[in-house]
Structures are given as structure tokens and as C-alpha cells.
Design goal:
Blueprint lengths: L2 H12 L5 E4 L7 E5 L2 E9 L2 E7 L2 H10 L3 E3 L8 E4 L21 H17 L20
Antiparallel strand pairs: 1-2, 2-3, 3-4, 4-6, 5-6
Helix pairs in contact: 1-3
InterPro entries: YjbR (IPR007351), YjbR-like_sf (IPR038056), YjbR/MT2646/Rv2570-like (IPR058532)
GO molecular function: DNA binding
Pfam family, one: YjbR
């Protein structure tokens, strides 16, 4: 998936979630997505490539970084709790190309990563402040 598509899909998804606000505290080139004032996603350009920072469970982040070339430790963030996601921009031909591990970021995985980031941030809020139940929102059934 190309980097512009990654940003567009993530933006469209995030803006549908309850209590999401879009802010630009770091300037017009850095879109920060917040739920009730807490950041769960940031979109920006990294070395000319549209990229996202997303909150992640540390164990999931470790596995994802090992499996997907498009996922790396969170740029300018806590590397344990954040990942950077950028689509591959090599034009990969007819879709038969893959990275060394044989995996590529797709729309379903991106959807899951944005949902997970949102729910992780919501789960840290006092129950009375949560706009959704993070355990069940978006079809989630497990911790």
C-alpha cells in the first residue's frame, strides 16, 4: 500500500471514532489525532514519506516490527509503546512482491492498528471519561 493511501485510510477511520479531534500543535505538517485530549495517532512526513505514529502494546509492536518492513519503532516517541507506519513506495509491480518476511501492510492490518491505538488510549482514561468501552469497541472482544 502506498504511503498516501496509508494516511488517507487512517485519517478516514480515525475521524469516525467518538470524541476524536484533529489538532496541529507541532505545525501544519503534523496532524495529531486525539481522543478526549490524549494523542493516539500522528500523521507527518518522515524523510519525504507520509507516515503515522500509533500507540501499540509493546509485545505486539515487537512482533509487527519484525514481520513488516513498513513498521518501525515510533519516530520521536517512546519506542516501546509507539510504532511508525509508512506504506511501501517502491511500486511493487502486480502485488506479487513482498519484503524479506513475505508480508506487506494491507488495509485490514492498518484498520486494526488504528483501532488498537485508539482503544489503548481510551483504556487509560477514567471509566467516566471514556467515550467507548475499549474492550468491545469496533468488534474487539479480547484485551
Amino acid at each position: 500500500m502506498d504511503p498516501d493511501t496509508v494516511l488517507r485510510l487512517a485519517h478516514d477511520q480515525a475521524m469516525q471514532y467518538p470524541s476524536v479531534e484533529l489538532d496541529y500543535p507541532f505545525g501544519p505538517d503534523n496532524a495529531v489525532y486525539k481522543v478526549r485530549g490524549k494523542m493516539f495517532m500522528m500523521a507527518y512526513e518522515l524523510r519525504g514519506i507520509p507516515s503515522l505514529n500509533l500507540k501499540i502494546d509493546p509485545l505486539d509492536g515487537e512482533v509487527l516490527r519484525d514481520v513488516y518492513a513498513e513498521i518501525s519503532p515510533g519516530y520521536h516517541m517512546n519506542k516501546k509503546h509507539w510504532i511508525t507506519v509508512a506504506g511501501e513506495g517502491d511500486g511493487g509491480g502486480d502485488g506479487n512482491g513482498s519484503d524479506a518476511a513475505g508480508n506487506r501492510l494491507d488495509a485490514d492490518l492498518l484498520h486494526d492498528l488504528v483501532l488498537e491505538s485508539y482503544c489503548l488510549v481510551v483504556a487509560k482514561m477514567p471509566k467516566k471519561d471514556r467515550p467507548v468501552d475499549p474492550d468491545t469497541f469496533g468488534g474487539r472482544g479480547d484485551d
